[in-house]
């Protein structure tokens, strides 16, 4: 698991990270969302043991990321936001180099990932498209079957089919009990995968939200009903159900009592369509993303 506790690092320009505390459990996908310059990479650099915290600490599987960095790296998979490949190498040269550095004894997972992401490994890296390079970086991040995986904008450059494949891979890894942190500045990159999303702005965490409980709450509060005629709309407005709004042949009613009671009353109407309107998850998060509001 990943445990970041009151992590603070102020650069000479007063930018940086301030009192950041987050926890990523085993079997959890944690979305780390924030605009450019928010502090995501600085957090990741602490996790990789590249920066010494001024205050607080970052730990992976109980090891301190700064003082015990050597104990962490073999269990860590990292996908950088921008990948610098060595000139003149082909994809397979790069993967061989990484396998050698990690002293990998089996190439089984690597072969499986190459096939899954349909990567032509003979192509020289400098001739690869952005998407191909991204696939290569994904294979490299996952091929040693790490316990903890840190991904910086992992789906950038991938086409929709490959993005879907990547989402499937993340779900499989999560189900195997891996600890996964995905950093991104776009909500859509986290929407289909993250269990928890934290929003960081100007070096501070301003919101941490369990996505599953939020989804549960969101679907509960109203029903949208379309009737065949205006009379039924007038009738429901004058009934003892709570009508939040109405227009044309449609009315939105509040789910403010036993569902059986609501359906009992609705059975007296001729209903054309029935829907549970969803507030978009993205809209809820974007409010925090753009505003200065401080919540936890
Ligand atoms: N070594 C440094 N010296 C001074 N300022 C720095 C240093 N590293 C980062 N910063 C500043 O700290 C802030 C956080 O940067 P960071 O790269 O962590 O943001 P980010 O959320 O990863 O952004 P992006 O999405 O653009 O990658 C920025 O304002 C950045 O300019």
TrEMBL record:
<feature type="domain" description="ABC transporter">
    <location>
        <begin position="2"/>
        <end position="227"/>
    </location>
</feature>
<dbReference type="Pfam" id="PF00005">
    <property type="entry name" value="ABC_tran"/>
</dbReference>
<protein>
    <submittedName>
        <fullName>ABC transporter ATP-binding protein</fullName>
    </submittedName>
</protein>
<dbReference type="InterPro" id="IPR003593">
    <property type="entry name" value="AAA+_ATPase"/>
</dbReference>
<dbReference type="InterPro" id="IPR003439">
    <property type="entry name" value="ABC_transporter-like_ATP-bd"/>
</dbReference>
<dbReference type="InterPro" id="IPR017871">
    <property type="entry name" value="ABC_transporter-like_CS"/>
</dbReference>
<dbReference type="InterPro" id="IPR027417">
    <property type="entry name" value="P-loop_NTPase"/>
</dbReference>
<keyword id="KW-0067">ATP-binding</keyword>
<comment type="similarity">
    <text>Belongs to the ABC transporter superfamily.</text>
</comment>
<keyword id="KW-0813">Transport</keyword>
<dbReference type="GO" id="GO:0016887">
    <property type="term" value="F:ATP hydrolysis activity"/>
</dbReference>
<dbReference type="InterPro" id="IPR050763">
    <property type="entry name" value="ABC_transporter_ATP-binding"/>
</dbReference>
<dbReference type="GO" id="GO:0005524">
    <property type="term" value="F:ATP binding"/>
</dbReference>
<keyword id="KW-0547">Nucleotide-binding</keyword>
């Amino acid at each position: 698991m990943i445990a970041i506790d009151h992590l603070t690092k102020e650069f000479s320009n007063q930018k940086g990270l301030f009192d950041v505390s987050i926890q990523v459990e085993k079997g959890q996908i944690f979305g780390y969302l924030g605009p450019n310059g928010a502090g995501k990479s600085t957090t990741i650099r602490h996790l990789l043991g590249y920066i010494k915290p001024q205050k607080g600490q970052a730990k992976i599987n109980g090891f301190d990321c700064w003082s015990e960095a050597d104990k962490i790296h073999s269990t860590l998979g990292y996908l950088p936001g921008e990948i610098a490949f060595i000139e003149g190498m082909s994809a397979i040269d790069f993967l061989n180099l990484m396998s050698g550095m990690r002293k990998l004894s089996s190439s089984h997972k690597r072969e499986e990932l190459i096939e899954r992401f349909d990567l032509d490994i003979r192509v020289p890296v400098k001739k690869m498209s952005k998407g191909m390079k991204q696939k290569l970086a994904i294979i490299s991040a996952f091929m040693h079957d790490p316990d903890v995986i840190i991904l910086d904008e992992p789906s950038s450059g991938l086409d929709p089919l490959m993005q879907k494949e990547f989402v499937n891979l993340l779900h499989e890894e999560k189900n195997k009990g891996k600890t996964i942190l995905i950093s991104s500045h776009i909500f859509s990159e986290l929407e289909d995968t993250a269990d928890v999303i934290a929003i960081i702005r100007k070096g501070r965490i301003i919101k941490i939200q369990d996505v599953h409980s939020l989804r549960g709450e969101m679907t509960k509060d109203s029903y949208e009903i379309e009737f065949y005629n205006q009379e039924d709309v007038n009738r429901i407005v004058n009934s003892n159900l709570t009508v939040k709004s109405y227009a044309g042949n449609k009315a939105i009613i509040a789910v403010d009592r036993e569902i059986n009671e609501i359906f009992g009353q609705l059975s007296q109407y001729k209903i054309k369509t029935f829907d549970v309107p969803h507030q978009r998850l993205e809209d809820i998060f974007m409010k925090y993303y753009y505003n200065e509001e401080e919540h936890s």
